[in-house]
């Protein structure tokens, strides 16, 4: 089901983690410094499920339920990402950029709140 990604802002989101913290990317060979996954049964503009960075959880997990506090909007790509955190956590735009730089450094991005 295709959704406007902005509908997730400030809502609770269930995430399936397919790239756990400490795992290696299968194609690009970098190591994930955080848990990364997707929202099941969604469709992003790139034709895949909506991807998510999970911040504030420092152990490998399989699933996560948290709050979407921001969106990374890629200005030169069609694969925006949700930023999901435990309900009580807050992150500044600068912190989000720093924590996701391992992958987002290759794109021109803006943080949408």
Number of distinct beta strands: 6
> What count of structural domains?
1
The separation of the N and C termini measures 23 Å
Order of helices and strands: EEEEEHE
Mean pLDDT: 95
Structural class: mainly beta
% residues in beta strands: 25-35%
CATH class: Alpha Beta
Low-pLDDT residue spans: none
Please estimate the helix content. 10-25%
Question: What topology, given as strand order, has the largest sheet?
Answer: 1-2-3-5-4
The CATH fourth-level homologous superfamily: Inorganic pyrophosphatase
Q: Output the CATH topology.
A: Inorganic Pyrophosphatase
Major sheet details: 5 strands, mixed, barrel
What's the Cα radius of gyration?
13 Å
**Overall geometric form:** globular
Number of helices: 1
CATH architecture: Alpha-Beta Complex
Textual characterization of the structure:
The chain is mostly beta strands and 113 residues long. The chain has one helix at residues 93-104; strands at 12-19, 35-39, 50-54, 63-74, 81-85, 109-112. It has a single domain (5-112), classed as Alpha-Beta Complex (Inorganic Pyrophosphatase), CATH 3.90.80. The chain has a five-stranded mixed barrel with strand order 1-2-3-5-4. It is globular and about 30 Å long. The model has no long low-confidence stretch (mean pLDDT 95).
